[in-house]
Amino acid sequence: MKKFIVMLLTLMVTTPLMSNAVAGSSEVTWGDYKKFRDIHSGNENRKSFRERTFKQFEQHFTKLSAQLPEKQLLKINMTNVDLAGDTHIGGINQTRIVKELYFPRLNFSYELLDEKGNTLKAETIELKDMNFMSGAQLKYRNKALGYEKKMIDAWFKESFADRVVKTK
């Protein structure tokens, strides 16, 4: 009985990991962040904010690319970031104000590669969502970079609809 329980627990723990083992992956490279339109932190340390923001974008691309077929690699080269909102100085504080006027924009190029390194698809993308505060409920309402993630999701769904692996 003890062996059965151990085997059952092992199966329960490894099964979710197996689905990730056959997924696509991503690599994100960053252009010169000093030339990015808006990656300002407000009152937070600029370097910490930038690193955390880049890491969140990288994690989001990783999550999306996991839907691609096994051994496909999505290489992203970010060339411009303009976060939703704008940073304004108010006394000694800098605050990010989010209004319709300050819509999010992302510029990047991507290349989708197969396991042999052959290019399956490549494009230069300029995303912007001038209507980012309207419409349906925001999936990432309480998450950092919610407006930008929503924009990336829409791009990914449109660009890779024919390649996404259906899971059970």
What can you tell me about this protein's structure?
The strands form 2 sheets. Strands 1-2-5-6 form a 4-stranded mixed beta sheet, covered by helices on one side. A two-stranded antiparallel ribbon has the order 3-4. The protein has one domain (25-160). The chain has helices at 2-21, 46-65, 146-160, and strands spanning 25-30, 73-82, 86-90, 93-97, 105-113, 119-128. With 168 residues, the protein is of the alpha+beta class.
Task: Indicate the low-confidence ranges by residue numbers.
Answer: 4-9, 13-21
Output the structural class: alpha+beta
* Helix amount: 25-40%
Major pleated sheet: 4 strands, mixed
List how many beta strands DSSP finds. Answer: 6
Number of helices: 3
Number of domains: 1
Entry keywords:
168 residues, two-stranded antiparallel sheet, alpha+beta, 4-stranded mixed β-sheet, 6 strands, 3 helices
Question: What topology does this entry show?
Answer:
Layout: H1 2-21, E1 25-30, H2 46-65, E2 73-82, E3 86-90, E4 93-97, E5 105-113, E6 119-128, H3 146-160
Parallel strand pairs: 1-2
Antiparallel strand pairs: 2-5, 3-4, 5-6
Helix pairs in contact: 2-3
